[in-house]
Amino acid sequence: xxxxxxxxxxxxxxxxxxxLGTLANSSIAISALLDKGALAGIHGEAGNQxxxxxxxxxxxxxxxxxxxxxxxxxxxxxxxxxxxLDDISPAHDDGTMLVTFDPLDGSSNIDxxxxxxxxxxxxxxxRVGSQATEADFLQKGTSQLAAGYFIYGTSTMLAMxxxxxxxxxxxxxxxxxxxxxxxxxxxxxxxxxYAINASNYRYWLDPIKEYINGLVAxxxxxxxKDYNMRWVAAMIAxxxxxxxxxxxxxxxxxxxxxxxxxxxxxxxEANPMSFIIEQAGGASTDGVVxxxxxxxxxxxxxxxxxxxxxxxxxxxxxxxxxxxxxxxxEMA
Length: 332
Ligand code: AFP
Hints:
Blueprint: H1 4-11, H2 14-36, E1 45-49, E2 55-57, H3 58-73, E3 77-82, E4 89-90, E5 97-105, E6 116-124, H4 134-137, E7 146-152, E8 156-161, E9 166-172, E10 177-182, E11 193-195, H5 206-217, E12 228-229, H6 235-245, E13 248-251, E14 264-265, H7 266-279, E15 283-285, E16 302-303, E17 305-308, H8 310-322
Parallel strand pairs: 3-5, 11-12, 11-13
Antiparallel strand pairs: 1-2, 3-4, 5-6, 6-7, 7-8, 8-9, 9-10, 13-17, 14-16, 15-17
Helix pairs in contact: 1-2, 2-3, 5-8
The structure holds 1,6-di-O-phosphono-alpha-D-fructofuranose (AFP).
């Protein structure tokens, strides 16, 4: 079986391969800590809040520091931005890569022994020779050189794209090496499974209410077929399920918290996952426009997300268009 190192040697530039290698090594360390669990003292709160105002779990902080430390030591890395840190961290002025990451997506799952993961996105650095600033990171998702996630589930896996399809690896616990298990991950255009946090129903806009009403009605409603529902509360796990057996995932615009356009972060969650999903044949939108075409306005920007099976994503987009929604919930 092909190892990740062998794959990167033949598919990526030296700089990209080295950056991805650093991410992979950090993921192996995070995976080992998760395996030890309570015995490694990683459960519970760290006692701080991140920039998003969310309580940080101990392992959030540990994983963040591990990645930050390893990436800023990599000479190819010009700067790093983490979901957990207020500001970006400049690294090597001569580096050619910028890395954004969510060190532990789904961190509320740690204490209940359920799936979490690390999401990453690699962007080109355009001002080699100068110190990286936040503005350098504000590139559209279409600029990504690579994106992916490490999922710490019943086994540790990596799903990744370099812009030529999606490839999946599994961590061999004996050799501590990632081995390729799938070279052509594909998502069906149609779906019978959806993922949404339905407790937010009363805060959604009408097109999402109408869409979910149709799915819940199953073969007695407008969609004329039954749908199943799953919600792991870790985007990483919901996206992984979609890559394996299809479906659609949503964290749509809601009015729960004034001024917040959805919950998920454009640079750490939405863009990397959109790159993966599109490269596997799926689609991704904020309800109105393609997520990877959105010009980021700031590093911690939030965005509504609907991604997965193309037919379902198009259906949701049509409902938004019919209702005259222009962008992020604005009415025509
Ligand atoms: P945490 O990393 O703070 O647990 O958030 C995970 C997440 O951003 C995303 O991975 C989930 O899909 C979503 O939040 C779950 O949100 P709800 O708790 O509102 O269901």
